[in-house]
């Protein structure tokens, strides 16, 4: 019964997503498009940090790589934007191999700081490599982006991210990643090739922010170092994954949609203090449910199911 309800909810959600651009305003379509991008990036972060507990503060590096790849290919080589978006993902995956091989030798806060440093290095390269990136002036793209076309592309990214995460979660590869997150030394002792597993997860995780970055650049019709490597996007992505439940299949989706919606409402109602309210809300929520929303709901559902399935307690009859 629960499975049928779940399938019905998924089908209903897909139907709403499919027909929404037909009736909704450009503002609402643009809002959902932005939400799709953040959810996609949250899934990318979740694949490396949620499963292996290697907390990354540099996934926005691949977002910028995807954005700049699209801008350069469209501006200088007149590529179709669809192919340029895919090319950005390929470039990010190729660069992720040597970067991951070096960075994943670090652990804990050193890995997090190393990834943060990578973002700063790439931003400086984008500023200094004037012959390719136009430096601080940025690259202007033709303002021909069809919003609804991008909306469906963003929705497709979310679907792919969910399916990939679901497949990883139920595979032997996902089990190896979780064992690394629990105890990497013990995982190595059990014969797991932790280096290869971490590198594969790192490369896979780089693809999703790169795809989101390409769509973002095409929608913005402009890219420069500040918009290509925005640190606030990194923070929002991490918060979405943690709020929904890091290391889960549905956590980034739930956290992404909820936090984006709440942030938009707070901005509309309390424009001057919305960031303060938003940050306070997240802090309070994470204090009371550090594992995230999805694991909390699962535990409560499990308790109710256990209580419902338990045999009734009978009073002892008097002898």
Blueprint (SSEs and pairs):
Layout: H1 2-23, H2 26-52, H3 60-77, H4 81-103, H5 109-128, H6 130-133, E1 139-140, H7 147-169, H8 172-182, H9 184-189, H10 194-220, E2 222-223, H11 225-228, H12 231-244, H13 251-269, H14 274-288, H15 293-309
Helix pairs in contact: 2-7, 2-8, 2-10, 2-12, 2-13, 3-4, 3-5, 3-10, 4-10, 7-10, 8-10, 12-13, 13-14
- What class, by secondary structure content? mainly alpha
Overall shape: it is globular
Low-confidence segments, given as residue ranges, are 312-319
Strand arrangement in the largest pleated sheet: 1-2
Radius of gyration: 22 Å
C-alpha end-to-end distance:
43 Å
Query: Given the structure, what is the number of helices?
Result: 15
- Order of helices and strands, N to C? HHHHHHEHHHHEHHHHH
Specify the CATH class. Answer: Mainly Alpha
How much β-strand is present in the residues? under 5%
- Gross CATH architecture: Orthogonal Bundle
What value does the average pLDDT take? 86
CATH topology: ABC transporter involved in vitamin B12 uptake, BtuC
| Count of discrete domains | 1
Described by strand count, sense and barrel closure, the largest sheet is:
2 strands, antiparallel
Number of strands: 2
Determine the fraction of residues in helical runs and give it as a percent range: over 70%
């Amino acid at each position: 019964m629960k499975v049928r309800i779940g399938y019905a909810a998924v089908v209903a959600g897909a139907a709403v997503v499919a027909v929404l651009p037909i009736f909704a305003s450009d503002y609402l379509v643009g809002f959902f498009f932005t939400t799709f991008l953040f959810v996609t990036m949250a899934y990318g972060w979740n694949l490396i940090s949620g499963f292996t507990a290697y907390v990354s503060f540099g996934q926005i590096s691949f977002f910028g790589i995807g954005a700049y790849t699209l801008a350069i290919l469209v501006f200088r080589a007149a590529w179709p934007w669809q192919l340029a978006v895919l090319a950005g993902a390929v470039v990010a995956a190729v660069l992720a191999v040597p970067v991951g091989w070096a960075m994943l030798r670090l652990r804990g806060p050193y890995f997090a700081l190393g990834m943060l440093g990578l973002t700063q290095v790439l931003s400086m390269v984008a500023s200094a490599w004037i012959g390719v990136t136009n430096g601080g002036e940025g690259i202007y793209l033709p303002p021909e982006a069809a919003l609804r076309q991008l909306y469906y592309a963003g929705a497709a990214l979310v679907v792919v991210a969910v399916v990939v995460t679901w497949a990883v979660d139920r595979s032997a590869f996902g089990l190896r990643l979780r064992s690394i997150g629990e105890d990497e030394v013990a995982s190595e002792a059990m014969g797991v090739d932790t280096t290869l597993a971490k590198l594969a997860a790192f490369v896979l995780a780089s693809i999703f922010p790169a795809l989101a970055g390409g769509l973002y650049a095409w929608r913005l019709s402009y890219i420069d170092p500040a918009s290509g490597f925005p640190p606030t996007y990194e923070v929002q992505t991490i918060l979405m994954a943690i709020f929904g439940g890091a290391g889960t299949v549905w956590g980034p989706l739930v956290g992404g949609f909820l936090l984006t919606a709440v942030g938009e409402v707070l901005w509309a109602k309390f424009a001057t203090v919305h960031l303060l309210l938003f940050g306070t809300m997240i802090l309070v929520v994470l204090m009371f449910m550090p594992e995230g929303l999805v694991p909390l709901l699962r535990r409560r559902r499990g308790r109710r199911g256990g209580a419902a399935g338990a045999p009734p307690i009978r009073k002892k009859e008097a002898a």
